[in-house]
Amino acid sequence: MYLISYDITDNRIRGKIAKELSGYGQRVQYSVFECRLTEQQYKELYQKLVLLMREEREGNVRIYDICGKCERKLSTIGIESRKMALDKEELIII
Q1: Closest CA to 31 of 72, 69, 3, 66
Q2: Percentage helix, strand, coil, to 5, in the chain?
Q3: Which residues pair with 5 in a beta bridge?
């Protein structure tokens, strides 16, 4: 899994980056996506982001590679955590 965040000043580029990321993963916060990618998908997405960022002078895109062991340690506090807890309970009941 990859955690990808961005801080982009240009509205046009920010919109294009968000649209591109939405095709590869799930938005978990306004400028943060979780993406489960194969190596090929990662390379493809990385190249697309590089091309989009050529025009951006101030912002950045940050990509964190989250290993499977670390992903299991992920915790969420708030509305999403309640949804995840309900999902886990449903899985246990079934």
Answers
A1: 3
A2: 50, 20, 30
A3: 32, 62
Q: Do 25 and 49 touch, CB atoms closer than 8 A?
A: no
User: What residues contact 29, with CB distance under 8 A and at least 6 apart?
Assistant: none
Beta bridge pairs of residue 65: 2
pLDDT tens over the chain, length 94 residues: 999 999 999 999 999 999 999 999 999 999 999 999 999 999 999 999 999 999 888 899 999 998 877 777 777 777 764 454 444 444 444 3
Instruction: Check: CB of residue 33 under 8 Å from CB of residue 21.
Output: yes
Contact 65, 32 (CB under 8 A): no
User: Structure tokens of 47?
Assistant: 């190249």
